[in-house]
Prior knowledge:
By secondary structure, this protein is an alpha/beta fold. Helix 3 crosses helix 4. It has 5 helices and 5 strands; from the N terminus they run αβααβαβαββ.
Amino acid sequence: xxxxxxxxxxxxxxxxxxxxxxxxxxxxxxxxxxxxxxxxxxxxxxxxxxxxxxxxxxxxxxxxxxxxxxxxxxxxxxxxxxxxxxxxxxxxxxxxxxxxxxxxxxxxxxxxxxxxxxxxxxxxxxxxxxxxxxxxxxxxxxxxxxxxxxxxx
Length: 153
């Protein structure tokens, strides 16, 4: 993580106590109820810890936002139009004006995209409304440099 920070990347979390990230197993442990999982996470983390929910669909993202998630991670969404449309609908639904669209309460949240991002395809994930693009490809599977230091005597 230090090398990533020095290289200019913003690390997702410094450690597990930096933010609560609810993945599918956490949701399943709460009976599949995203709102229940977010509520439990906020109760455990207190007011100062952000809660992120990994979402496999736009419907899950809506549920997470309604429950008060600080960050919704759109995981494995197809880059391009599918992703762009989903992001615009979410931002429009919860971010426009005092009551959003369809009477939804205005919410403050970030949208993160993740899953399958590489240096080659990242351009398709750079769409208006996306706040965070995350990938593990910059630290997993990176070829190491084999070198040694010889002392000349």
